[in-house]
Design goal:
By secondary structure, the chain is of the alpha/beta class. It has ten helices and 14 strands. The strands form three sheets. The protein has a six-stranded parallel β-sheet, with helices on both faces.
C-alpha cells in the first residue's frame, strides 16, 4: 500500500517496523535494510513500512548539490513492494519538514503517526534540521519512546561500499556491469519509442529511438542491451548507442538508439525498457556512414557473442 501523506494513514496504523530514507536506486544496501525490516516485522507480528521523501531533500536544502536520480518515485515504490514491504509512506519534503528538530521528527512522525516499534537505518543515517541527528541520536530517542533502533552495516561488493553516490558515479562512467552488482539488477531506461532523423534506416541500420524522462543516463557510448516491449511479452537482444551522432554532423539533442538483434515481428513497440548489460566502446566520429555501418556490424558481432556465451552459462 502506498500512502501519499501522513494524513492519509488510518488512525490505527501500526505497530510498525520502519526504515527511513530516500532510497534512490534501491541498491544492495537498501535491499539489505528492507529485507531485515520485513523479517523483523514478520517475527513480531508488526507491519513493515518504508518512510521515504518526495522530492529528494537536497532539492530544497541545497538545490545546486541535488543529485540526478537513479530511479523515479514510482520505480522505487515498485522495487520496495517486490521486496515485501507492506506500506510505503511518502512524506512531502517541505521547508517546514526540513526545520523539524530530530526530537520533533521522531515524536510527530515515528511515534505518533507510524507507531514505530523498531526503526532500522544505515550507518550514515542523518535526520532533523541541518542533519543534526545521527544513529546515536535515534537510539537515544528509541530508548525514550520505546522503540528498538537497529543500524544495518553497509554492503560491500568487490571491495566497494554500495551507495547511491557510487551507483551514480559508475553509471556516469559507463560501468553498467558493476552497477548491475551494486543494484542487484540490470540498470534500465524506459520510455516511448519516437521517430528519429531517419538517417539510420537510410544509411546505416534501422533503430528504435527511446525518449525517456530519466534524470541519469549512462555515459555516452555503445552498449550491449536487452529490449522489452512494455505492452507485450516481446523481448529482444539488442545493442544501443547513447550520444549525439557525430558522424552526421553536430546535433544538440542526445539520442538513445537501439538496434534489435532478432527479427521485429508484427507492429513496432510503442513503449520499451532497455536494460544495459555491458559497455562496448565510446561514441566515435567516423569518416563516412559506410564506415559507421561497418563498425556497428562489428559491435553487433560482439553482442551476439555475448548473448551466446551467457545463454551457454545459464543453460
Amino acid at each position: 500500500m502506498i500512502w501519499r501523506s501522513l494524513q492519509d494513514l488510518p488512525q490505527d496504523f501500526g505497530p510498525a517496523a520502519v526504515t527511513i530514507g530516500n532510497f534512490d536506486g534501491v541498491h544492495a544496501g537498501h535491499r539489505k535494510i528492507m529485507q531485515r525490516v520485513v523479517s523483523l516485522a514478520g517475527e513480531q507480528g508488526w507491519t513493515s513500512c518504508v518512510l521515504t521523501f518526495e522530492p529528494h531533500p537536497m532539492v530544497l536544502v541545497a538545490p545546486s548539490r541535488a543529485p540526478k536520480l537513479i530511479t523515479t518515485l514510482d520505480q522505487r515504490c515498485a522495487l520496495m513492494e517486490d521486496l515485501g514491504i507492506e506500506h510505503i509512506v511518502i512524506l512531502q519534503f517541505t521547508h517546514e519538514i526540513a526545520k523539524l528538530t530530530p526530537d520533533e521528527f521522531v515524536q510527530h512522525t515515528l511515534v505518533e503517526r507510524l507507531r514505530a516499534r523498531a526503526v532500522l537505518v544505515g550507518e550514515n543515517f542523518r535526520f532533523g534540521h541541518r542533519a543534526a541527528g545521527d544513529t546515536a541520536t535515534l537510539a537515544d530517542s528509541g530508548k525514550k519512546h520505546g522503540f528498538l533502533t537497529e543500524v544495518v552495516p553497509a554492503v560491500q561488493v568487490r571491495h566497494c561500499t554500495v551507495s547511491s553516490t557510487e551507483v551514480r558515479r559508475r553509471l556516469e562512467n559507463g560501468d553498467v556491469s558493476t552497477c548491475r552488482r551494486l543494484l542487484c539488477r540490470t540498470y534500465s531506461l524506459e520510455g516511448r519509442v519516437v521517430r528519429g532523423h531517419g538517417v539510420g534506416s537510410r544509411q546505416t541500420v534501422p533503430t528504435l529511438n527511446l525518449a525517456t524522462s530519466a534524470e541519469l543516463l549512462p555515459a555516452r557510448g555503445v552498449y550491449i542491451t536487452r529490449t522489452y516491449d512494455l505492452n507485450s511479452h516481446r523481448v529482444w537482444p539488442s545493442i544501443s548507442n547513447i550520444g549525439y551522432r557525430p558522424t552526421f554532423g553536430s546535433d544538440d539533442q542526445l539520442s538513445i538508439e537501439t538496434f534489435l538483434l532478432a527479427p521485429l515481428e508484427g507492429a513496432g513497440p510503442e513503449e520499451i525498457r532497455v536494460e544495459f548489460l555491458r559497455r562496448v566502446r565510446e561514441e566515435s566520429k567516423f569518416e563516412s556512414p559506410e564506415a559507421l555501418k561497418q563498425q556497428i556490424l562489428r559491435d553487433v558481432g560482439r553482442a551476439q557473442t555475448y548473448f551466446r556465451r551467457t545463454a551457454a552459462v545459464t543453460s
